[in-house]
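Spend some time on the protein that follows and explain the fold to me:
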Amino acid sequence: MQLRWWKLAAILLLTYDVVGGLLLPVPELSQLGETIRNLYYHVCMWFSMMILFTVSIVHSVKFLRTGDLQHDIKAESFAGVGTFMGLLGYATGAIWASYTWADPNNPAYASFGSIMREPKLIGAAIALLVYGAYFILRSSVTDMDQRARVSAVYNIFAYAMLFPSIWIIPRLLPSLHPGQEGNPALNFNDIDSRMRMVFYPAVLGWTLMGTWIATLVIRYKLLNEKKWNTYEK
């Protein structure tokens, strides 16, 4: 099987993310220490999630306009991989919080109750649950055309819910999470040039890897659909 250039780029970028994330120097911040290197995973996975969700909703809109079921398959696949990236981002964020906010020896220490009430964590959990409901909804509808239409409409709703739950509401409430006055890691005051050398390639690398996984899922589902259509005939 021919390896497309962007797939090779995904491998090289993620390799650079791991090696560069470990070896390149980072700012010395007392509250974060070496855990700041998690920025290359936690934040980059969330950026990848948003891009994949955007591709998913584009295919949902295309399905509503054309009725082509291939767009429904693509929308589901990109939403699935986007949700997976979101879960990875949430997990790496929780691990990061355990070494910073939940560490009594850290100046940014916060109680367990405060962490559980953290608006950013709650908003992220709500966003992922909304997308989880998308897949439950799909599995509850047996008719293929009806499932595709309902899923496309719900996908638009789920995408719209991302912005208030992740970007808007957490910024209106007191939060331990950085980025109250801008997007974390995009603000030039958040990271220096050394970290940006790894951060931006990492965003692209995780996005390309997610796209690669989504294309494999799409190919499998299209082949499976073709097999069942042949069987029915």
User: Anything to note?
Assistant: The chain has one domain: 5-232. The chain has a mean pLDDT of 84. The two ends are 30 Å apart (CA to CA).
